[in-house]
Structures are given as C-alpha cells and as structure tokens.
C-alpha cells in the first residue's frame, strides 16, 4: 500500500510515475520485475533503490544469517537493481 500511495502522490504532483515491488535480494525476481517495467513503461531513466537494513545488535553478536541478509540488502541489491 505504501508504494501505491507514493506512486499516486508523485502522479498528482508530477504527472507520471510507476512503482514496482520485489525482493531485491533475489536476482531472479529483480530481473523479472525489470523486464516487466520495460514492457509496461518503456525505457527507464530513473530508478530509486532506497533499501537498507540495520541489525540493532553489537557487531560481535551478529550471527551469519544476519550478516548475510545485511550484505544482500545493503550491498548486493544495488548491483542487482
């Protein structure tokens, strides 16, 4: 619902916008959404990847799963998008 609301607000103010959701840590999902975007709206001139997470624990308390998720969202997703 947040994406729909934001997209609607941008359309009202600037005339056009499109919002798409996907799991940015999943390369296949990102590629599928990218193809859908190009098919529906054409060439993309601006992409906003505003994703990021923070594990609210001491560095020494991070377990491998939290480290992996943090790197996937904060680093790898920017390459996928």
What does this entry look like structurally?
- This protein has 81 residues and is mainly α.
- Helices cover 56% and strands 0% of the residues.
- It has helices at residues 2-14, 27-41, 64-80.
Topology (SSEs and partners):
Blueprint lengths: L1 H13 L12 H15 L22 H17 L1
**Alpha-carbon distance between the two ends:** 21 Å
The succession of helices and strands, N to C, reads HHH
The share of residues in extended strands comes to under 5%
**What is the helix fraction of residues, given as a range?**
55-70%
Please count the beta strands (DSSP E, at least 2 residues each).
0
How much is the average pLDDT? 91
Number of helices: 3
The coarse overall form would be elongated
Radius of gyration over alpha carbons? Answer: 16 Å
State the low-pLDDT regions, or none: none
- Going by helix content, strand content and strand pairing, the class is mainly alpha
Biggest sheet layout: none
Keywords: Oxidoreductase
Protein name: 17-beta-hydroxysteroid dehydrogenase 13
Family: Belongs to the short-chain dehydrogenases/reductases (SDR) family.
Pfam families: adh_short (PF00106)
